[in-house]
Amino acid sequence: MKLVIGLVGAPLAGKETCANMLEKLLLEDGYSVSRHTFSEILRETLDLWGLPHGRDNEQKMAMLMNAEIGFGDGTLSRAMRHRLMTEDVDVTILDGVRWLGDEKMLRGLNDEGIKSILIYIPADAKVRYDRLLTRKRSGEHTTTREDFMRQEQVRTELDIPDIGSRAEIVIENNYNDIEHFHRDINRVYESLFDQTGR
């Protein structure tokens, strides 16, 4: 049975690190793997319009797609579902579950014979802001704390804790020690595949 692992967490919580490690472990064990983010659809759409990438533009595009004057709630989720249903791999890692419609789509895959599991990665805002300052990606390190906290309140981020409360697995990531986080991910990987009988 195909498995989709959905990752939910605020920006810089550690979702990409988790996805990287899960992919590595899966490939080492001989599974075929694909990876997707909801942001990839947003970036492709921005490219079509000649608009720059970045968190602000991606948030705006997501809100426009899902708005009543757009295509309605769940538009981005439906686009991702279409991608997932056309793939023939053992495991898909889906990074960036953040809307209730994303969660509904993920859970609905079970009706299509695809197993889905949600992993929540919570991390404190201060820890995540400190990571932003050291990451130095696309000028993000110049983001002020006030701008960072404002981005936390954008509509695209508000459902994350609620969705996370229903996740099967939670991996806290308030560590400065990446090895600690890696050990937790490895334990989750081992227990996850025990649970699914793979």
Radius of gyration: 17 Å
Sum up the overall morphology in one term.
globular
Largest sheet: 5 strands, parallel
User: What order do the helices and strands follow?
Assistant: EHEHHHEHEHHHEH
Q: Based on helices, strands and strand pairing, what is the structural class?
A: alpha/beta
CATH topology of one domain: Rossmann fold
Neighbour order of strands in the largest sheet: 2-3-1-4-5
Strand content: 5-15%
**What is the share of helical residues?**
40-55%
Low-confidence stretches: none
Strands, helices and their partners?
Blueprint: E1 3-8, H1 15-28, E2 33-37, H2 38-48, H3 55-66, H4 75-85, E3 91-95, H5 100-108, E4 115-120, H6 125-135, H7 145-152, H8 160-164, E5 169-170, H9 178-196
Parallel strand pairs: 1-3, 1-4, 2-3, 4-5
Textual characterization of the structure:
By secondary structure, the protein is of the alpha/beta class. It has a domain at 3-37 and 91-190: Rossmann fold (3-Layer(aba) Sandwich). The chain is built from 9 helices and 5 strands. It has helices spanning 15-28, 38-48, 55-66, 75-85, 100-108, 125-135, 145-152, 160-164, 178-196; strands at 3-8, 33-37, 91-95, 115-120, 169-170. The protein has a 5-stranded parallel beta sheet with strand order 2-3-1-4-5, with helices on both faces. The longest helix is centred in the C-terminal third of the chain and has 19 residues, at 178-196. The relative contact order is 0.21. The mean pLDDT is 88.
